[in-house]
Design goal:
heterodimer, A: alpha+beta, Rossmann fold, two-stranded antiparallel ribbon, 9 helices, 13 strands, B: mainly alpha, 12 helices, 6 strands, Brix (chain A), Rpf2 (chain A), Ribosome production factor 2 homolog (chain A), rRNA binding (chain A)
Chain lengths: ~350, ~325
Amino acid sequence: MLRTVKPKNARSKRALEAREPKEVEDPRIAIFVKGTKTGEVLNGVMKDMMALKRPDAISFSKKNVIHPLDAQNTASGSSSTSSLEFWSSKNDASMFVIGQTSKKRPNDLTFVRMYDGKVLDIVEAGVENYISMESIPGPKSTSGHKPLMHFASELFDTHPRFIQLKSMLMSLFNGEVVESIYLKGLEHVISVSLAPTPATLNTASASTESSTPLPKVHIRTYTTRLLASGSRIPRVELAPMGPSMDLVLRRHTNPDPELLKQAMKRPKLKKTDIEKGLGKRKKNTDVDEMGDLRGRVHVGKQDLSKLQTRKMKGLKAGAFEDDDEDGSDYEDSDGDISMKRQKLS
Amino acid sequence: MDVSTLLADHAEKLKSTQVETENALDVDAGYLTVTDPNPIETDSYESSLETHLLSLARTGTQALLNALFSLPTTSSPDGPLAQLPPPTTQLPRAKPLPKPKPLTKWEQFAKAKGIQGKAKEKRTKKVWDEERQEWVNRWGRDGKNKQVEEQWITEVPMNADIDHDPRKAARDERKARVAKNQKQHEANLAREQKARGSVSSNPEREAHKKELERTLAMSRTSTASMGKFDRKLDGERKLKGVKRKFNPTESSVAAEAKASLDLLTKMNSEARKARITEAQRPSKKSRTSRDAGAMEDSVLNVRKAVRFASKGRGGVALGREKTKGAVSRKRGRR
């Protein structure tokens, strides 16, 4: 655990304040860590992923003994998550991409997501059929531009492993909330699609941890070319940009439910946002085409039998029965007034 | 003029951007993300993988761009900016939500009274000077708050003292303002610390510390050299405002006798006895201090409230008035 530092001058104070929690968060800074052994493939993968993630990417180019998914008491002694936590606090980073190759798990890429300086969840995948960015000719995207993301398969909505993968990749590349964007600056797409869903997964999607192998994940990146279509909306053509790779999902950890609950907390919506129509929808109000706010008011069912119609002497109930009309009338009205008073008070 | 050809043309143009899929694509414009919920077709996947992936990605991207280009835009110096809606996908945060800052005493009061003051808008460092027609510092070097002190000529009021120095008066006033603000700031910080319940907010310990410091100061001043040659303790602060004072060695017998008698009566006095007994019963003392603390915590200033309610005539008058009022009201009801 790092000791809390008290800033000694204005510059370090500003730097510390920039690291404090914010309501609308900055993009996650990712650290690309090399494990004890990384092959040519993984070096290329990490380099290209860094090119996509820049400027929010930090490279740890030296070898590190790190096995976040292995048990605590490995040969290295300390647990690997503790060093992840240390790096996270030192660099203000909340994502890690760890590359490591071994005989048992060749070309292993591990994505680690952090919350509040602690490990939230981990996804491990093997890289196959890697084609680097350099080997594909053509224009490349400018670094710092936001990518579009495309996920194709119904499993991204149904299968927990792929939901987690989608969330992880979105956190890595696109997890920043922005208010507005320059549309001509959308230069590239990261497309993530799956192999056809095996029949076993299709039928019993809920019963998860079966022995059937999960479908392969194809990650492709394309540059976009916007062609004039004659209308406001352009027609898009894609050209491969690289890197492209296939991932085979391996081990993973699920987030700690308590930690996840904290991480999913949203800021309270401001009053102006609620008026704009965000959050809980206000009932029975709508805006008509003139821009006026219209409301509907619910009134309970009316009892029409007690409706006061035109008063006529001949229609009075006791008109022909009682002699002392005036007296009874007076009493009635008095009683009414007293009732009203009671209601008011 | 035949409109049908124009319409057909337009429809043709639209066709190139339209996306037709079995299930509608799920577009999250806030995160610039599109999810295709249609199952992958095995035939096209197996026949040629790359073309299949490219066509899938093109369809998805087209759908996403259709959504993005139909968003409302605002103009900016760099070109039109599309206003993105808030994202629909929930991603975990990287850090916890920021904690709300505790209110200062003034903010508490303003909130209780429904006052909206200048506190809302942030005070800028620079202010506009009408005379000089330029932006000047609000404080600091050549600050606006030092204008009176630094101007080369100052009007002196008619009835001013002979040694009245307008520059010094203005400076003292400014220094007093700064000191007051500093004091209030510290009080706010202390209240925040207390509310947070930190270690140093142990009242007994604090009281003990204060008492020790007092005793130490007294013991220092009880030597003839006012503690100048005493052994210094670690972290001991230098006493301020301590001066040696020597009475004349020769004084009249009457004065000497009076001083001695005074000392004796002082030692035997009722006030001293009362003080001693009070010191021996610390429970009562602590209770009163706690009460004072409770009073201090509340926003309402009781003394001012009584003065306001009684229109400046005091609490006794208020009580008398209240009883009288109750009696008269009773009478009135009858």
